[in-house]
Amino acid sequence: MARYTGSVCRLCRREGMKLFLKGDKCYSSKCPFEKRPYAPGQHGRDRMKMTHYAKQLRSKQAMKRTYGIFEKQFRKYFDKAMRAKGVTGTVLVQLVESRLDNTVYRLGFALSRSHARQLVTHGHVLVNGRRVNIPSYLLRPGDTIKLGEKVRSNTDVKEAIETASSRNAFPWLDVNYDEFEGTFVRLPEREEVDLTIDVQDIVELYSK
Description:
The chain is of the alpha+beta class. Among the domains are: 1-48, Ribosomal protein S4/S9, N-terminal domain (Ribosomal Protein S4 Delta 41, Chain A, domain 1), CATH 1.10.1050.10; 99-184, Roll (Structural Genomics Hypothetical 15.5 Kd Protein In mrcA-pckA Intergenic Region, Chain A), CATH 3.10.290. It is built from nine helices and five strands. Strands 2-1-3-5-4 form a five-stranded antiparallel sheet, covered by helices on one side.
């Protein structure tokens, strides 16, 4: 299946929530979701009663779309979370948050997760001093992430850092913008991750 190349704002409208797929624009009044907070299409304004299954499905789709993950890989994350010790939903969140592309975005080196994915695949990101071009690479506590020298002067990267430096840092990450470097200090706690998605719905859906 090819990666989705349509308007990402339609995805937010379809899920009925902001997925923050366009970076800083999502925080502004220019966000299309602010103007049209209903599903796209001819019947988008119609109010339909949502079943429990539909709610579970929408939660799964929203989380996949937020992190840019396809079904096959997302199911692997869930199976891994099921086998791990701890609360399945929390472990699932920790797995997707440990992805390299997501961490590059969380550190503030990219405008969005798709931008972060592009930086990684183009070989502009180093993990512990070694170049890694796999967006789904799972980081471990203590790993250091650094931007390559060639991309540091990029306009989008500069804009991302400028925007991120004015916001509160994520407690499980440590970042040094002067050195274009960050550290994945530890796994995040569920309450620390800004997800409005009900992860328990996903656990129930896959557990059937």
